[in-house]
Write a structure and sequence with these properties.
Chain lengths: 419, 253
């Protein structure tokens, strides 16, 4: 098939670089796609599991807007609830009843959590969680996992990145994932000064394979936190409601003190939540934390509708099963061409890569060839499955993946690399 | 203290050693040294050492102490060397007094030529020939500076720690200069140009793009997005090297 061209995207980008730093800054930057010439830059419309770029090219999206679109684009139940709320009242001079309803819904659903606090982005609530932990314990140090991502505040970004000071990291201690001994060591090195431990349910480092928790890992971390009076914070922003509607901590069998949610909460409407156990409620109340748009009712109505739909559809179970179906077939396809596709992490949001070339260039070429044919695949980030990725979508995905495997195989046979 | 030490390492191993490249790509520099038969040793007390051999119209830089230099220039401290590089201090000659005239009159002509290319103004950069030499020199400074920063700068060591092992090839297309940076067994080295089977490749579309980026005249992310700069392979290698390169102006800016 003819591969896509991106003339309109490029033309827009040429305009953008004149008035916007980087043209498109941050995680949506085309610079993160390899090569950028294989990827669209601007989307015009979206529906279900697909979006169309400004050149009219159609894509099946396995990034789901970097995670939020768990029910697919333009879900009518969610969108209708949001629109209705928007007509009634969105941002006013008072909090919305929807905030109470949403907090009650979450408290009823999420295991062991007794309250909810709402903001906009994931980083809002991971940052708030650390403030609550410090306030509750009177301690300074936060323990996080090397390669773990919790947002873009200076303490969350890697030291050495522009704008990040050594002082920003003075109280952040990074340890390897799945290493209980390392946690014991930092506790011993900072006696009585570790306020909190923050990590995702399983490790999803950019550029590397995902790593599930080893048996007993979370239980040992929890036991250490209880023994040492350390606040256990689960960053469930990316994984939340993709493994278990009661929370990923229920999936892995442990109880955090604080849990952060965002991406799948409202199917694309801007809202995040910090939830906590009863013992943390008064501590959270002490920490002043707010933002101009955090009381918007529309995303709260959307979240209620989204969570209701996810429950009704038993979405985590469906996503895990559909992921197993899709990625199992994809592995078989790859094997048919003599390639090895490695799928790590849980199947509702796995990391997928070809392991036949240690540099990763072959995998980058395959993702690019898929994208140029209509399946948007990022080469260095976990992918996401939504409930809109139905059998028709899976079948079309596999057709395109098959063609892309052919292309990279032929290129390799000719001693060159595709894309 | 660390600042002066790191800067001295960069001055010796990234900037001064670039005389080797200058002589190889600039006719005027080659003309200057064509009759030189001398080995200069630069040594900092409890610090870095570099020697420059001028022979048969070529310049070769070597790290450490030469077994029989003709001239030995000694610096009491890293700061002393850095002040010399800024034109504010003189070295202490320990050997080669008969060559004092060479040191005060001839050698500075070559270092002035290096400075001419490394600290250009806009008008000079508009000239293609100048631009090419400036790019080649900047690429050399960057490659050796990355190695030094990865080992001697505390922030640089942190950035470099996340860099996977292997070879990063940096190329100016279509047939421009190339350098490579190698991380092996936790150590860092500058490798040969255009290595085979690198783990990562960063390419500049042409000399003009490379020059603009190295002189801070364009947005690297936008250049990547537009395909003026491309990268493939192990991206964390490129990310780490870019962070290290970002620190160069902190010392040499």
């Amino acid at each position: 098939m003819d591969t896509y061209r991106y003339a309109q995207s490029q033309a827009l980008f040429d305009r953008a670089v004149k008035v916007i730093p980087c043209g498109v800054p941050g995680h949506m930057s085309p610079a993160v796609n390899i090569p950028p010439s294989a990827y669209p830059i601007y989307a015009a419309r979206s529906e279900g599991a697909r979006f169309w770029d400004v050149d009219g090219n159609e894509f099946i999206d396995y990034m789901c807007g970097y995670g939020p679109m768990i029910l697919g684009y333009g879900n009518p139940v969610v969108d209708e609830a949001a629109q209705r709320q928007s007509w009634e009242a969105d941002l006013t001079m008072c909090a919305s009843p929807k905030m109470v309803e949403l907090a009650e819904f979450l408290v009823d659903m999420v295991g062991s959590m007794a309250w909810a606090f709402f903001a906009k982005n994931g980083g809002d609530v991971t940052n708030y969680a650390t403030m609550v932990a410090r306030s509750a314990t009177g301690r300074k140090k936060m323990v996080a996992i090397k390669g773990g991502y919790h947002g873009v505040a200076p303490w969350m970004q890697a030291l050495g990145h522009p704008g990040v000071l050594a002082e920003d990291h003075a109280h952040t201690l990074r340890i390897p994932w799945n290493d209980v001994g390392a946690f014991e060591q930092v506790i011993a090195e900072h006696p009585g000064d570790v306020a909190g431990f923050i990590a995702t349910p399983y490790h999803v480092p950019t550029f590397y394979d995902s790593e599930l928790p080893e048996a007993g890992y979370w239980q040992k971390i929890e036991a250490l936190c209880r023994k040492e009076g350390i606040v256990l914070i689960l960053d469930d922003i990316r994984h939340g409601f993709r493994l278990n509607m009661q929370g990923s901590h229920v999936h892995y069998g442990f109880t955090p003190d604080l849990v952060c949610y965002c991406k799948a909460l409202a199917n694309g409407y801007p809202i995040s939540a910090l939830m906590g156990t009863d013992t943390m409620k008064n501590e959270a109340a002490k920490v002043f934390y707010t933002g101009s748009y955090w009381y918007q009712a529309m995303p709260m109505a959307a979240a209620l509708a989204c969570l209701g739909e996810l429950k009704r559809l038993e979405a985590p179970e469906w996503l895990l099963k559909q992921g197993g179906n899709l990625f199992g077939k994809m592995e078989t396809l790859a094997a048919g061409y003599g390639f090895h596709l490695k799928v790590t992490g849980e199947l509702s949001m796995p990391n997928v890569r070809l392991t036949d070339d240690p540099s990763g260039m072959l995998h980058q070429a395959w993702c690019a060839e898929c994208t140029k044919r209509g399946v948007f695949l990022a080469s260095h980030h976990n992918w996401f499955v939504s409930t809109a990725h139905d059998e028709e979508v899976v079948a079309r995905t596999l057709e395109i993946c098959d063609e892309a495997f052919q292309v990279i195989k032929e290129a390799a046979a000719q001693g060159r690399q595709a894309s | 203290m660390e600042y002066q030490r790191v800067k001295a390492n960069l001055n010796l191993h990234a900037v001064l050693r670039n005389l080797e490249t200058l002589v190889a790509c600039d006719d005027k520099a080659a003309e200057l040294i064509k009759s030189w038969e001398v080995t200069l040793q630069f040594s900092v007390l409890r610090g870095p050492a570099l020697y420059l051999e001028f022979q048969n119209g070529r310049c070769r830089a070597g790290e450490g102490v030469h077994h029989a230099p003709d001239v030995r220039l000694f610096f009491l401290s890293a700061r002393h060397l850095n002040r010399m590089m800024d034109g504010k201090a003189s070295p202490i000659p320990l050997k080669g007094f008969t060559r004092l005239s060479f040191l005060t009159k001839e050698f500075p002509k070559l270092t002035d030529r290096l400075e001419y290319f490394l600290k250009p103004d806009e008008a000079l950069l508009a000239d293609d020939a100048f631009c090419e030499i400036n790019t080649r020199l900047n690429l050399g400074v960057a490659a050796y500076a990355v190695r030094e920063l990865a080992t001697t700068d505390s922030m640089g060591r942190l950035n470099a720690a996340s860099m996977p092992e292997g070879t990063l090839s940096i190329r100016v297309l279509p047939n421009g200069p190339s350098v490579s940076i190698v991380k092996e067994n936790g150590g860092y080295a500058v490798g040969k140009p255009n290595p085979e089977n690198p783990m990562a490749v960063m390419s500049f579309r042409d000399m003009g793009v490379a020059n603009d980026l190295m002189n801070g005249k364009c947005d690297a992310f936008a250049a990547l997005a537009k395909g003026d700069v491309s990268m493939k392979g192990k991206i964390p290698m490129i990310e780490a090297v870019n962070l290290l390169m970002d620190r160069i102006p902190h010392y040499l800016g």
